[in-house]
C-alpha cells in the first residue's frame, strides 16, 4: 500500500474532564481487530508521546467513542467506549467512561442520529460496554447544539453549557461480592459497581493521608505494590476474572473532606492517579458512602436529608446526586444517580491515520499504566 491513508470522519471533543475522538460506527471497520488497528494508528499508538496521532499521551486524553443508532426500543443510540493505550498496541472495551459520555448526546445530534429539540434535547444512551443506560439532556436553542453556558466543573478551565446525565439503576448488583466490607491483603475494602467496578479504601489503611498529590502517590513503590495486590484479588472477587491487563476495577482512596465537601478522594485508573475523578467512579463513591458500615463511610460528612454529595478530588470537586433502596434480600441497590457535566466540540473533520506499514515500537501493555 502506498500514498496517503484514507481519511476517517472524526469529531474531537472534550467530555467532562477527558478528551476523546468520537466516531460513527459506520465510519469504522465492523470487525473489532481491524477497527482497533485503525484506532491505534489514528491515536498515534504505540508511542508514549503519541506524537504521530490525536492522543494526548495520558489515559484521560487517549479515548475513543463509537456511536451508532440503537436497536433497543429503550435507547436512541449505542455508545461503545474504547480506551486506547499509548505505550502499547492495546485497545480495551472493558469499562465505561462517564466523562466521554457527556459528549455523546451532542455528538448524536451533530451527526443527525437524534433530532434536536427547539430548546433542549434528551438522548437515551445504551452503554455497550456494560449494558448500563443514561439519559443526557443539553441545550439546543433553535435546533442546534449550544456548547456555551455558565456551568463550571473542576478540572476544566472556563464555563460551558450544562449536560445533565441521569443514570437509572444498572443491571449489576451494587455490591458485586455480596459483602458491605471485606478484607483484602490485610486492608478493609468495599467493592461497588454503580456503572464502574470500584474498590473503596480508607487512605490511612495504606499508610498514606489521602491528601498527597497524584504525582507523589504514583511515585510510591510500596503503595503501588499494595494497590496491585488488592486490585487483582478484588477483580477476582467481583467476577471480573484476571484483571492484570484490564483497566478495571478502579481503586479510590478516601479521607475526611478539607474543602467543605463530603469526602476527599484519590483514584487510580488503575495505576495512574486521576487528576480529578471519573463520573462513574464518583457514582460508585457516592453510593458506597451511603452504605452503612462500608469502608471509608465513617470518614464522610454527608448532609442529612440531601441526595447531593460533593466529592473532593485533587483539582476541585464533583457534585453528584445519589440515593439507594434496599433489595428484597436486604442489600442496598442504587435508585438514582445524576450529575452535571459539560462538553465542548473542539474540531470536526477528517483524521488521517498513520500508514498500516509503520511497525509498532516499544510495545507495553495498558498504555504506560505500569
TrEMBL record:
Which Gene3D superfamilies does the entry link to?
A: Diaminopimelate Epimerase, Chain A, domain 1
Which key words are in the record? Isomerase
Q: Which GO terms describe its molecular function?
A: isomerase activity
Q: Does the keyword Isomerase apply?
A: yes
Tell me if Amino-acid biosynthesis is a UniProt keyword of this record.
no
For this protein, the record's InterPro entries field holds: OMA_tautomer-like (IPR047687), PrpF-like (IPR007400)
**Alphabetical list of NCBIfam families matching this protein:** OMA_tautomer
**Any Pfam family the entry gives:** PrpF
Q: What is this protein called?
A: 4-oxalomesaconate tautomerase
Its Enzyme Commission number(s) read 5.3.2.8
State the family named in the UniProt similarity comment for this chain. Answer: Belongs to the PrpF family.
Amino acid at each position: 500500500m502506498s500514498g496517503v491513508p484514507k481519511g476517517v470522519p472524526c469529531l474531537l471533543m472534550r467530555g467532562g474532564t477527558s478528551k476523546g475522538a468520537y466516531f460513527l460506527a459506520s465510519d469504522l471497520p465492523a470487525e473489532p481487530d481491524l477497527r482497533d488497528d485503525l484506532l491505534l494508528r489514528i491515536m498515534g499508538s504505540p508511542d508514549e508521546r503519541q506524537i504521530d496521532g490525536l492522543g494526548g499521551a495520558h489515559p484521560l486524553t487517549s479515548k475513543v467513542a463509537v456511536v451508532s443508532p440503537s436497536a433497543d426500543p429503550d435507547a436512541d443510540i449505542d455508545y461503545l467506549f474504547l480506551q486506547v493505550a499509548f505505550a502499547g498496541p492495546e485497545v480495551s472495551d472493558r469499562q465505561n467512561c462517564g466523562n466521554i459520555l457527556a459528549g455523546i448526546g451532542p455528538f448524536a445530534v451533530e451527526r443527525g442520529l437524534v433530532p434536536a429539540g427547539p430548546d433542549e434535547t434528551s438522548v437515551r444512551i445504551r452503554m455497550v460496554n456494560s449494558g448500563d443506560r443514561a439519559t443526557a439532556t443539553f441545550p439546543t436553542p433553535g435546533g442546534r447544539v449550544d456548547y456555551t453556558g455558565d456551568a463550571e466543573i473542576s478540572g476544566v478551565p472556563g464555563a460551558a453549557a450544562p449536560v445533565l446525565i441521569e443514570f437509572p439503576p444498572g443491571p449489576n448488583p451494587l455490591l458485586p461480592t455480596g459483602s458491605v466490607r471485606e478484607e483484602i491483603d490485610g486492608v478493609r475494602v468495599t467493592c461497588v459497581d454503580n456503572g464502574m467496578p470500584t474498590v473503596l479504601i480508607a487512605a490511612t489503611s495504606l499508610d498514606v493521608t489521602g491528601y498527597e498529590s497524584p504525582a507523589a502517590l504514583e511515585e510510591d513503590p510500596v503503595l503501588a505494590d499494595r494497590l496491585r495486590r488488592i486490585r487483582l484479588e478484588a477483580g477476582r472477587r467481583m467476577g471480573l476474572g484476571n484483571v492484570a491487563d484490564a483497566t478495571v476495577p478502579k481503586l479510590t482512596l478516601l479521607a475526611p473532606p478539607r474543602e467543605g465537601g463530603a469526602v476527599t478522594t484519590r483514584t487510580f485508573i488503575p495505576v495512574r492517579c486521576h487528576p480529578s475523578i471519573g463520573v462513574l467512579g464518583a457514582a460508585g463513591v457516592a453510593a458506597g458512602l451511603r452504605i452503612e458500615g462500608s469502608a471509608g463511610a465513617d470518614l464522610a460528612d454527608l448532609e442529612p436529608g440531601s441526595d447531593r454529595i460533593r466529592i473532593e478530588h485533587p483539582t476541585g470537586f464533583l457534585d453528584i446526586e445519589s440515593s439507594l433502596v434496599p433489595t428484597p434480600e436486604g442489600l442496598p441497590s442504587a435508585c438514582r444517580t445524576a450529575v452535571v457535566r459539560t462538553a465542548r466540540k473542539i474540531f470536526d473533520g477528517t483524521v488521517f491515520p498513520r500508514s498500516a506499514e509503520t511497525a509498532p515500537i516499544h510495545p507495553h501493555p495498558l498504555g504506560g499504566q505500569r
